[in-house]
TrEMBL record:
Cell compartment(s), UniProt: Membrane
Topology versus the membrane: Single-pass membrane protein
Organism lineage: Bacteria, Bacillati, Bacillota, Clostridia, Thermoanaerobacterales
Alphabetical keyword list: Membrane, Methylation, Transmembrane, Transmembrane helix
Species whose genome carries this gene: Aceticella autotrophica
Annotated GO CC locations: membrane; type II protein secretion system complex
Protein's recorded name: Prepilin-type N-terminal cleavage/methylation domain-containing protein
Amino acid sequence: MQSLLKRVHNVSRNEKGFTLVELIVVVAIIAILTAVLLPKLLGYTDNARESRAKGDLASMKSVVEAYAADQGNGKYPAAGNSGTPGTIGQVLSEHGIKTPTDPWGNSYYYAVSTDQSSYVILSKGKGGAGAAETIYVTGSTSPKKGDPNPSATGSTPAPGYPSDGTLAPIQ
């Protein structure tokens, strides 16, 4: 019996493995790397979402411009949902853009002037509010980030911004 215990004791001594201290050091290194890299990776995610929103807006602008040239007699689509002919929702739907949502899960917004000669399509950005996060496109601009209508600050609106239009979600 005693020889059996000696054998078990010797076998357990000869086994290779990691000590608790080694495991704690590895976990600490992984935690430090995560703390350093995670903010950088989240920044890339935000940039990718912003780029996707700009791409979506460029696609919608192409559809709206084509509509005005082909079917609208030089007028942009009216605001409204996809069930009504001649509205932004219906025009986008006809061209394969069904109830668009921005990369943050919010609606895109559309406003057109009363004479239908200018428009803006926008995403309210990451927070869903706040002019600094807004990404927009007008008939006269490419997709941009910023406030398309900074009239509250006394600045000039973006070229082509319909100052008499009311923003409504695209449905």
